[in-house]
Amino acid sequence: MNYYNYFTEIEEQFVRRRGKHLLISPMDWSLISTWRESGVPLHVALRGIDIAMDTWHSKPHRGSDRLSTLFYCHDAVMAEYARHLEAHLGASPANAATPVSESGQDQTRSPDDRPDKNSILEFLDARIREIESLRAKHSQGENAEGIERMLSRLAGIKQAVEVEGQPDFEALERDLGILDELLVGELRRSVPQEKLDEWDLETRKELKVYKKRLPKETYSKIVDNYMRGKIHRLFNVGELSLFNL
């Protein structure tokens, strides 16, 4: 399996088990991002989805009933993650769980499972071109200085990848994540307040049913990831994350 298939593997599993060929929503993608940031390994997330869907299919449903969101699986995924952590607590090195990164990926995967340096450089070039396009549009605005800083730092990251024999994927993803956070912060300043209010209302409506069931921190992460995705799409700039490769 490709090293960066965390999102698509989860989407495909949920769609397959749901039995309806409908893509998941941007809010569901925000939930997946939250699982990834929390360190949930892919195989644990898939197991939780299987358990949740088994429960769903075991119950009688009317023809009008439909399962439209991945949030139905959240409790099962978190329960499986808790069991996963408990099972490996204090495990000996020989029996310890596979190391998991902050992004929820195994750190011991073969380099053959990871994108090559050229793919990473092409990805960075594409993001640089998109941000350069932003610079042309905001050359006189309050974001101009911030965008210049983004380009400079991204160019530095690209240069570092060029001279490395084998890129340090974890360090690179962490650096890009920090830079993406700054980029979104800069772009957010250019979003009209009415648009932000509209997105906020949309988010609250989507999550209304689940707010009481979600831990406050998880709820905040999902909202933040959803808003970040909206900003990226509004400005037509891809997320600075190797998971998008």
Strand content: under 5%
Number of strands: 0
Helical element count? 9
The number of domains is 2
Features:
0% strand, 245 residues, mainly alpha
Structural summary, described in words:
The protein has 245 residues and is mainly alpha-helical. It has two domains: 6-57 and 67-113, no CATH class; 117-244. The protein is built from nine helices and no strands. The two termini are 14 Å apart.
Q: What topology emerges from the helices and strands here?
A:
Layout: H1 6-18, H2 26-37, H3 42-58, H4 74-87, H5 117-137, H6 144-163, H7 169-188, H8 193-207, H9 216-235
Helix pairs in contact: 1-2, 1-3, 2-9, 3-4, 5-6, 6-7, 8-9
Summarize the structure.
The chain has 245 residues and is an all-alpha fold.
